[in-house]
Amino acid sequence: MNPSSLIARRYLFSKKKVTLISVLTLISISGVTLGTALLIVVLSVFNGFFELVQGWMMAQDPDIRIESATARSLFLDEEQINQLSEMDEILVVSPYVEGKALIALRGGGFKVAVVKGVETESFSQIFELDTNFRGGDFNLEIRDRRPGMLMSRTMMNQLGLEIGSEASLLSAESIQRSLTQFSGPRTFSFDVRGSYRLSEKQDDSIIYVDKRAAQRLFNMRNSISGVDIKLRDYNRADAVKAELELMFGDDVLVRTWYDLQRPLYDIMNLEKWGAYIVLMIIVLVAVLNILGSLTMIVIQKTKDIAMLRSIGFTPRDVRNVFLKQGFVIGMIGCGLGGGLGVLLTWLQAEFGLVRMFGSESFIIDAYPVAFAMSDLILILSGSLILCVLASLYPAKRAASVDITDALRYE
Length: 410
Fold this sequence. Notes:
elongated
């Protein structure tokens, strides 16, 4: 073993007796352990909530959405759609038409709703909706001379409709066309063919119809509002976005799943890293104990340091003794804290030990957690760096001990 390492371990852990220095060393290790474990657990909880919210949002958001950057309509021909489908990273391409329309209420009056025209086959491969269809088939195409409609159960209750009812939609384009042609606005009748249900936190005000029916409703002919894309790996969304921007140019707006809900995701990330900075203060307090204990060792071992210098130790060798003490304290604290934090995170994930207050009105009953190796590396490296930095002053002070003065008064 290297002499400086042997001396560092001997100074920290004396087997003969318990001293104030050894007590301070244990306090320092305990502080680093608790701070590191707490950081791992708290960041895992933030990760768990992020994944939970991401799951809610991505039930209605695609991995990538392409829209026109300058106009209401997007013009993509069949060749361009096929070009998208042939990209290795892209799994499903689903064109859609979207707009607002009026739907008639029971007893008179109208309600504004968002209507989205989709291709049922590709749409069902991208979005996971809890649906209930008459006959069991997700099919919105024309039957008995009437296109189908998929509506949320909440909206159906508000409108007094049920599966099999007839509903009429009136778009702003129809009203505008009636004013220019001096005729009554044309309404479009749909068959309420199914219902879907989302959590209370999600938007359930969207009405889904067949894409061609939506094109007639909004007078969009062969144009579309945009294209929803599902990737083989949604984590590759930014890379695919860059490819699509090069392919289509500035006239097309390409947004990833993160871009579609950026304010929400940004706030959650800000809260996570804000908590990381605040909780690192706990580790910093423990680091101050390291500074104090090593400084006391330097004062107490002044004679030993002088003796080491007199037998050939250089100032650098002496400095390394105390730097290694800080490193050893950090390694022990980070190792114990890392293991404890990972264990608590696993127990919470498997058994839900800490329950949420008021969970009876929420969709989960325990705090969600998601362990991330990148967070573990960041926490352990940050704590270890602080421990080493705390040993710099005592190490510098030990290296500057004057041999003559130290031995003169012994």
